[in-house]
Amino acid sequence: MAVMASHNPRNLRDKYQGWIGKKVTVGLTTFHYLSGIWTAIEDYDAIFSIGGTPTRIAMDEIDSVAEAPAAQAEYFK
Questions:
Q1: pLDDT tens per residue across span 38-52
Q2: Distance from C-alpha of 19 to C-alpha of 21, rounded to nearest angstrom
């Protein structure tokens, strides 16, 4: 795991803690998007459940987060 000097895991955890357990749509800095349940934060990574499959994303790649409608399909593209 690469350590990101510009981000403290505690600050990132505090910033995103309110999204855990919610269905979200997340825009990434890599021009990808995902929709799924935000299940956890571990070190510098956000863990999402997308269609029941755990997906790990570096929190430094998160550009935007919004609550997703319950009927929204879960995806990573």
A1: 999 998 899 999 999
A2: 6
